[in-house]
Structures are given as structure tokens and as C-alpha cells.
Design a protein that fits this description.
The protein is α/β, with parallel strands linked by helices and 270 residues long. 41% of the residues lie in helices and 14% in strands. It has an eight-stranded parallel β-barrel, surrounded by seven helices. Helix 2 crosses helix 4, helix 5 crosses helix 6 and helix 6 packs parallel to helix 8. The protein is globular, with a radius of gyration of 20 Å. The protein binds 3-methyl-2-oxobutanoic acid. 3-methyl-2-oxobutanoic acid binds next to strand 6. The site of 3-methyl-2-oxobutanoic acid has 12 residues, from strand 6.
């Protein structure tokens, strides 16, 4: 059962869901077929994340994702989603040069994908840019804590906000709220810090590796449903083992082709 009670999810529903104590469900999505399934399941928001660089395109980091790649994937998702809010990541290098560059990228993504919002990584330092995008009429979801596009600067996949770092996470959340974000993703921060941020801001917090107190949760679907057979992060719960299912199906097909068992009469034209 979905957290947001709406026939079509809009950004305004996020703060309403938070105020009503209803949790928001978010999954990543990068193609039409799975987007249609997640939408039918009642997932509130589909995030066309630049994690596509990892789980779709097979690369090591998200840094190489391009605007063109994001647009192709996002278009497929918006065509399939009937109810869920579709949000698209601004990839690395597409917004840092200037506020004009950021607005130009966000406008292009909105025009060419049909999405309802964009997501941008960064806290207080990106707040003026975020504000410019919001002022252009484009809803923005912020993303603070561990921000994968900065993994080299952060020294790898390191939990953010421990000890004295908690104050920075809180200040970042307040800065992006002030700049006009409708929601904020909190990635890999201690549960207690995420709980404090969630109490401190009025916008919805969406956690990934941020404990249970956030207003919503997001997972990369290939991790959550077992298609990504690599190392699994501590914060992932596996709801299915699609990797094993596909492996068994592919082996069965291979065997049937080899033996001549496939195709049979029923799969052949007369
Ligand atoms: O790119 C992505 O999938 C993300 C989520 C992990 C929040 O940013």
C-alpha cells in the first residue's frame, strides 16, 4: 500500500505525506517495462538515477553518466509511469560549471523526458544553483550525506555525518530546504543523524542507508531484487533473487535449444 494517497503523485504530496506520518516509497528505474511494474505496485517515486552508469551500463562509478544517456532512460520511464512521480538525476559535469549550465541542463531534461523533477547532489555549496533551477519552475530533489558523484573527493564509499560531521549534514539539509527543494535524499548517514534531520526540516527526507526514521526510503532496484550479483551494501534488503531466476531460465533455454526441445509444435507456425 502506497504512502502517498493520490491518483497521480505530485511534489506537493511529499510534504503532505510527511505531515500525515505516511512513508514514501522510492525505487530507481531506467526502462519502460520495470517502470510499469513498479508504478503498478504503487511505488510513489521513480528515480532515474545516474546509478544507471553502474547497474545498467556496467561502469565502476556514476561519474561517466551523460545527459544524453539519462534522457534516453528517463524517456522510457516517463512513458510507462502512470501514477509515480518521475525524477531524473543531473549527472556529474552537467551543473557544476555555472548556475546557467545547471538551469540549461535541467530545462533540457524536463523538455526531452517528460519527467516531473530533477535531483541534484550537494548541500549548502549547491544551494544557490538549486535555487536557480527552482526559480526556473523546475522542482528539485536534493541529495546529501554520501554523494556518489563526489566519491573521489570523499575518499570512497564513506558514511557521512559521524561525530562532528553531523552538524554539516544538518546544515546541508536546512540549506537545500531554504533553497526550495521539495525533498532530500539522505545517503549513508547514521540513523540518529537522519532522524534528527527528519525532525528538523519540513521537506520529506528519503533515506538510503539512513535508518528507519526518514520520511521515505529509496533503493536501487537491481540491488533490492537480486539482479545485481556483486557485493551488497549493508543497507540493502533483498526482496527477490532475480539473478538466480534469470540464470536458471537462461540455462533452461540454452539446454532446450541444444537438445532441439525448443521450439516445439506450439511455438511454430503452420
Ligand atoms: O543514482 C541513484 O540511484 C541515486 C540513489 C542511490 C539515491 O542517487
Amino acid at each position: 500500500m502506497s504512502g502517498i494517497d493520490a491518483q497521480r503523485v505530485r511534489t506537493r504530496h511529499f510534504a503532505q505525506a510527511k505531515a500525515a506520518g505516511r512513508k514514501i516509497s522510492v525505487l530507481t528505474s531506467y526502462d519502460a517495462l520495470t517502470a510499469g511494474i513498479f508504478d503498478e505496485a504503487g511505488i510513489d517515486m521513480l528515480l532515474v538515477g545516474d546509478s544507471a552508469a553502474n547497474v545498467v551500463l556496467g561502469r565502476d562509478t556514476t561519474l561517466s553518466a551523460t545527459v544524453d544517456e539519462m534522457i534516453i532512460l528517463a524517456r522510457a520511464v516517463t512513458l510507462a509511469a502512470r501514477r509515480a512521480l518521475v525524477v531524473v538525476d543531473l549527472p556529474f559535469g552537467s551543473y557544476e560549471v555555472s548556475e546557467e549550465q545547471a538551469v540549461t541542463t535541467a530545462v533540457r531534461i524536463m523538455k526531452e523526458t517528460g519527467a516531473s523533477a530533477v535531483k541534484i547532489e550537494g548541500g549548502a555549496e549547491i544551494a544557490p544553483t538549486l535555487r536557480r533551477i527552482v526559480d526556473a519552475g523546475i522542482p528539485v530533489c536534493a541529495h546529501i550525506g554520501f554523494t556518489p558523484q563526489s566519491e573521489h573527493a570523499l575518499g570512497g564509499h564513506v558514511i557521512q555525518g559521524r561525530g562532528a560531521g553531523a552538524g554539516k549534514v544538518l546544515a546541508d539539509a536546512e540549506a537545500v530546504q531554504e533553497a526550495g527543494a521539495f525533498a532530500v535524499v539522505l545517503e549513508m548517514v547514521p540513523a540518529e543523524v537522519a532522524a534528527q534531520v527528519t525532525r528538523s526540516v519540513e521537506i520529506a527526507t528519503i533515506g538510503i542507508g539512513a535508518g528507519s526514521a526518514t520520511d521515505g526510503q529509496v533503493l536501487v532496484w537491481q540491488d533490492a531484487f537480486g539482479l545485481n550479483r556483486g557485493r551488497r551494501a549493508r543497507f540493502v534488503r533483498e526482496y527477490a533473487d532475480l539473478g538466480e531466476t534469470l540464470l536458471a531460465a537462461a540455462r533452461a533455454y540454452d539446454a532446450d535449444v541444444a537438445s532441439g526441445e525448443f521450439p516445439g509444435e506450439a511455438e511454430s507456425y503452420r
